[in-house]
Amino acid sequence: MSRDHPSSRRFIFSLHAFAKGILAGILVLLLSAAIGWTVFEQRYSGKIYPNVTIDGVSFGGKSPDDVKAYWQAQNIPFAHAVFEFKFENNIATVSGTDLELGYDATLSATQAYAVGRSGHWMSDLLTKFFRGPVALTPYFRWKSDVVETALQNLAQNIDIPVTDALFRFEHGRVTAFRVSHDGRALNKTETMDRFNAAVAAIPHAPVFHVVINLPVEPVKPAVSTAQVNSFGIKELIGTGYSEFQGSIPGRIHNVELAASRLNGILIAPGETFSFDKTVGDISAATGYQSAYIIKDGRTVLGDGGGVCQVSTTLFRAALNTGLPIVERHAHAYRVHYYEEGGFKAGLDATVFSPSVDLKFKNDTPSYILIQTKTDLSVPSLTFELYGTSDGRSTQILNHVVYGQTPPPPDLYQDDPTLPPGKIKQVDFAAWGAKASFEYKVTRGNDVLQDQTFTSNFQPWQAVFLRGPQT
Fold it and tell me: Are the CB atoms for 311 and 358 separated by under 8 Å?
């Protein structure tokens, strides 16, 4: 039987000893690592690991509450921020408090504390000891819905609906008309982009009063006025206005009726318009009611009282449009209706078919369309003349009222339609006066009209109607 060589036995013994030493060293290392791990975890129990930074600030060893407190303190100045949304006179302001503007302190605390605590031990080990610093970015947040609500409220005042044109021509008259109008709309998407860019810049360049000019965009009609008719009517070229507060029902009826007879009338280029011819017969047979008129120096009931309110308003519209006035007659007496609304005496025109007429000529390059509007809430009458502007401008110059004379004594007239003893004032005292104004129309350096209108008003007494004496 063979025997082991002594040197072999010594080698095996040495190998066993070495192995025991290695194992012992590993056990020591593992024990040391375990102890170190335990000490490390105990030290950072409930705290953030040392390699975590937020926006360059180290929060290692801090609790989540410490992180929250830090970012909440950073948010204090943001409460004083003001965002001003502006378009013309439409302004809305939103404060940083309304927006809850600032860093999300809770999210930063949660994210920082979660580093190294994913639940995957190998990933957590590498994160805590081998991957170097973990740099987090704080989340800067705000409540967009607050801004969206403010913009919706602003849009109600800013937005203007677009209007498509309407034009219907039947039996030689325009029976339906609506001029096209551009609309406008607040671009909410662009506004939010501007706001988001401004608010996102605050942490880097603090500005606590930010003015955001609102982007408001035009909206074009699908159908324009010029597209719907063949008469060259494109736009409003002149208006006339008058008021008739205190008119009796019959007079109001007549004003509305005569105005309606003119609504939708087309005046061809070169045509001379006649009020009497266009309105036609003014009598009970054509629908007019009795209203007070001046006849033979007295106030009496007569068919069509109030029609001169219509001729006066149309005269003002023709002046405003810059049209040549072919025929115009002033009233013999001042009528207070024609001086309401801030007008001076002399801007009136009386009519009485067939001898007294209002005439003017269409010397524009297109047809002129007459539109009338009666507003009984004032009450008032408006004429709108539509056509094509040729660049002319009008002026009323040197309008003076002079040579005034006092009215005669009050006049009382018996009216059997009133109850006995009842008194009703139907006309008001007016001073006599003279009036004149220069009517000048120019286009560039050319003078198209230069005419002086004069009026000579006799003094007029207050008139009262009274019921018969018993």
Answer: yes
